[in-house]
């Protein structure tokens, strides 16, 4: 079980968040889970960009200048070479009722955790995906951002407890592949890298953004489109990624509606992005 190493509220050590906080009452806020490498927040520019987008979408009156400083100061206190920082931003206190008028000031929490003890074989030999029955609802106003309401992901993750599955694949209500419960999905078709469109639901992960950003710099084309299960099953490689776990190749998957289990090798494209992520992020 992960142990919390420390919690800071608006730059000061704290033990708890106020009961009347809108983040606790309504999920009215955002969060980022950040890999800490040598006491620095990895991929911070991408986390910051997603936060800025989320703050604008939710109309939370918030300046990222102090938050950025607090994140860097707290990461300096991590005792290990690798770890995790969780940043939570809420609209603050506001009493009862959904109307946010008069709420605040904004609450900012930063928590430190040890680096997760993921099985090494998840990275080296790949994982088996669980076929989640929980589907994601369409809500373009919230799509992409990492808001505090993760109940769909909680329901999906409750569907399996067996250690044979490293992640669970989640579809939307139209039957398109969206993401895994805690990571984004990439597939390779005809040497073309493809990732699902997230304009209606799902989280635009920072590792996903890193791959899109670096592919563009290298002149490599990445298609962002609606991904069907048929496309997934005809892919030559599949992998999942997030900013903490990195990239895990997907070895096997069987959909509820598919008669046979599909298997994929760990291909050159997957290996390339695994190595690129290590070289850049450590």
Which SSEs are present, and which pair or pack?
Elements: E1 6-9, E2 12-13, H1 22-26, E3 29-37, E4 40-41, H2 44-58, H3 64-75, E5 82-90, E6 107-114, H4 120-124, E7 127-136, H5 151-157, E8 165-172, E9 177-180, E10 184-189, E11 192-196, H6 206-217, E12 222-225, H7 229-234, E13 237-242, E14 246-253, E15 262-263, H8 268-281
Parallel strand pairs: 7-8, 7-14, 11-12
Antiparallel strand pairs: 1-2, 1-6, 3-4, 3-5, 5-6, 8-9, 10-11, 10-13, 13-14, 14-15
Question: Which terms would index this structure?
Answer:
282 residues, alpha+beta, D-amino Acid Aminotransferase, Chain A, domain 1, 2 domains, 9-stranded mixed beta sheet, 15 strands
Descriptive overview:
The chain is built from 8 helices and 15 strands. By secondary structure, the chain is of the alpha+beta class. The strands form 2 sheets. Strands 7, 8, 9, 10, 11, 12, 13, 14 and 15 form a 9-stranded mixed sheet that branches. It has helices at 22-26, 44-58, 64-75, 120-124, 151-157, 206-217, 229-234, 268-281, and strands at 6-9, 12-13, 29-37, 40-41, 82-90, 107-114, 127-136, 165-172, 177-180, 184-189, 192-196, 222-225, 237-242, 246-253, 262-263.
